[in-house]
Amino acid sequence: MKLAVSVLGREVALLEQQGDFRSVLAYHPHAAVDDLVSLTMPVRTESYVWDDQLPPVLQMNLPEGYLLQVLQEQFGPHVGASPVALLSVIGRNMVGRLQVAAPGATLDEPARPVEVADLLRGDNSEEAFAELVRQHATSGVSGVVPKFLDAQQEAAPLAAHRKASVVTRRHIIKGSSRQLPFVALNEHLCMQVAARLLPTARTEVSDDGQALVVHRFDVDEQGQPHWGMEDFCALLGLRPAAKYDTTWERIAKAVRDHIPGERRLATFRQLATLLLLTYALRNADCHAKNLALLYTSRADVHLSPAYDLLTTKVYAGFQHNPPGIEFMGKKTWTPGKNLQRFIAANFGIQPKEQLQIVEAISDAVAGVGPLVRQAMADHPAFNDIGKRMLMAWAEGVEGLREPRSYAVGEWKSGAAFEGFSAPPKLGTNASKIGRSPLLGKR
């Protein structure tokens, strides 16, 4: 199968599948220097050969989870279910400035409209969200992102994948599920903390707290593709499934490889804030697909706004998960002075400035605490999750401020973090792989 690869609507390269595990991408002779398909694949006359079905930058946009199931049901009998076949279906509507289609095909395929205002006010049950996913899958819109939440299966279609998202021309729409109630509200509140510290994707949450609308930052004001976007899975040559199999050291090296010299310090400052925020929010879902670079050419490569932030500790089965990305060979919530040393050595952010970042994070968390309490009042079913979020945030901030870490001193968290009873203890999954539930207990 052959597919044309376009940048901002201009066909610049041809992708060809050769056998089951080999793909070749060749730029057209007229491709300009800034028409690069990937930062790791500059324009050249020699073809790029991958011992895989797709180059990493194109694997980045492949559907997963529930949308993958829908696409296979809808289009599998006609085009097959290989990655290249799926790319031929969703390739007109990808995140970033790339489009992929059959050679000579029309690229301007209108997406089915979504009334965001209705979504924010309306029925956001799993069934309603599943229908939204199904409708947009059939129009060629890509993008379920199950993140860390695909470890177990259930009978309900959406619940089986725990968390799904639909990409439209201007927005990414995410839903919650029975296994992860109010995950949309959880993410929205975490993003409010981040927005006080660094560039962050704008989010809106529905009245019922079960759906999240994320405003896309890779498109212009008219919703047209503008920025090239590559997550660090693609930049590091990893398959999406390997998003946890990297290190902060490798991410720092990729920044040095691709970010212009005059932008590097600002980028590392942003990364340091994100890393420290991961600890403060107890976000075990920070992985290589949740960090990305934006660009129109090599001269303006920069870190994308923050996105996909979540307090994972509030959900049963995930409360004991370690950080998603390791540094200095470890994944731990109690790194001690090693965190400070790592950021200084790899990001070039000195301890004095790190202390200022920790103080800013502490203030941001304290400032958003009242919003969590308000959400608890507005949504009684969110009450226990809200308590766990406040407790996790307090634990995270105090962990950064303690003498064994940054020794910042006592934190004045504010009234939002006080005056509530402890939530019920989260359960753990005691089942053992390979043991049948039909066997009697010992």
> What is the percent of helical residues?
25-40%
How does the helix and strand content classify structurally?
A: alpha+beta
Shape: globular
Query: How many angstroms separate the termini?
Result: 56 Å
| DSSP summary: helix tally | 12
Radius of gyration: 22 Å
What's the count of strands?
Answer: 12
Round the mean pLDDT to the nearest integer and report it.
84
> How do the SSEs run, as a string of H and E?
EEEEHHHEHHEEHEEEHHHEEHHH
Low-confidence stretches are 136-162, 430-436
How big a fraction of the residues is strand?
A: 5-15%
| Strand neighbour order, sheet with most strands | 4-3-2-1-5
Please summarize the sheet with the most strands.
Answer: 5 strands, antiparallel
Q: How would you sum up this structure, described in words?
A:
The protein has 442 residues and is an alpha+beta fold. The chain is built from twelve helices and twelve strands. The protein has helices at residues 56-59, 65-79, 83-90, 116-121, 126-138, 183-195, 232-235, 248-258, 261-281, 337-347, 351-378, 383-401; strands at residues 2-7, 10-17, 23-27, 48-50, 98-101, 164-167, 171-175, 203-205, 211-215, 228-231, 292-295, 302-303. The strands form three sheets. The chain has a five-stranded antiparallel beta sheet with strand order 4-3-2-1-5, with helices on one face. The protein has a four-stranded antiparallel beta sheet with strand order 6-7-9-8, with helices on both faces. A three-stranded antiparallel beta sheet has the order 10-11-12.
